[in-house]
Amino acid sequence: MAFQEVIDAKQRIIQEFVPGKQVTIAHVIANPKPDLFRKMGLEEKGRNAIGILTITPGEGTIIAADIASKSGDIEIGFIDRFSGALLITGDVSAVESALRSVIEGLQRILGFFPTDLADPNERVIMSTEKKEKRILLVGRSGCGKTTLADTITHGSATYHKTQAITRVGNFIDTPGEYMENPNYYRGIILHAYDADVVIFMIPAGDETTIFPPNFGNSLNREVIGVVSKVDTGKDVEAPRRNLKLAGATNIFEISVHDEESLKQLCNYIYG
Questions:
Q1: Are residues 85 and 138 in the same domain?
Q2: Is residue 56 part of a domain?
């Protein structure tokens, strides 16, 4: 099935949620490279910072955008009340001030649970404490993302359809619809900032791809490829080729029933 046919066949609304009211990500990207503005669909002229917020429930982004726009000289670059994503642009001080106003305002007025805003002058996104790497899983529905995360984290897995962004140990598991519908590409790009490594996954025997060429270049993280379900004996060359075209650097062939293949993947990630 062609890429466009897959998109036309499946139009499902996916909403990311965390129980309660929470600001889950707040970050300032100071002096980003010009191509980052372009790849995220933002105007660069006169702006040297991007502010990123993700909020649950997603409707909170409407209130956040109102607070941010009234706090200083910033512009709303993107808002999605379904995924809870908000992007703002401006100079570094204005963007930082706007994000702090949003966090404080949502906490004080509506009782949202806040998150820390990193110093935009710090080059390290994560805290100085040693943390295990977080992995973002991306691929079509049924390719084995949840099974992989459950098997590595818990030692076994029971299949269940992922309906929203979920956390399984160090894995960030995305619904297949996030790649099958281009409207949700921004959600993947935003969640990549919360990960250290991104895994693109295609099952053995799948001769088609939902990954646009060089999509990995837009994520600003290391992207590796995984050909799953190799125990079926089906073709792996087409998935390997499509993963490489999507921007994956290293490609691993795995089966959740083959402990050695999982060890090789984990050794590379956690090295």
A1: no
A2: yes
